[in-house]
Amino acid sequence: MNRNGFTLIELLGVIALLAIIIVIAVPSFVESNRVAQANEEEDFNETIEVAAKDYINSCSSFDDCLAKHSDGFESLFASDSSTTITAEELINAGFLKDDLVNPTTGKVISTSDSITVTSKSGKLTVTYGG
To answer: Rounded to 10 degrees, what is the CA torsion of 49, 52, 57, 59?
Structure first.
């Protein structure tokens, strides 16, 4: 007898084996994708935070700060206060790239996006209002 193909049992065995592999692999890929997205959002927020803090810390004097920002960031040096800067200020000062993409929206940050810097108990926290 001449065999020119696979039997139904052989095909079913291969299909079952592929189904088992898919059942094991797909949840792993989904979890990896979720973790990667969370890391990307965390990295984006950290980039904004570092840029805003560096921008504020780059003031060598009150006059320098006043030239950079209308309130001279003096409000940040008072206790429990905040100030808002724009992404445009960070881009123009060279602390942010103008092609930075927000992973939540998938859009390049706008120069009008606001960044709030809050001083509480001597610690600066940054909130991106994109």
So the answer is: 180
Q: Is residue 79 part of a domain?
A: yes
In the sheet with 123-128, reading across from the earlier edge strand, the strands are 81-86, 114-120, 123-128
Query: Model pTM?
Result: 0.66
Range of the domain at 104: 8-128
pLDDT in tens, 78-104: 667 777 888 888 888 888 888 888 888
For the chain, what is the mean pLDDT?
82
Helix (H) / strand (E) containing 120: strand 114-120
Which of 93, 103, 84 shows the shortest CA–CA distance to 46?
103
- State how many domains the chain has: 1
Output the CA angle 23-30-106, nearest 5 degrees: 155
The pairing of strands 81-86 and 101-102 is unpaired
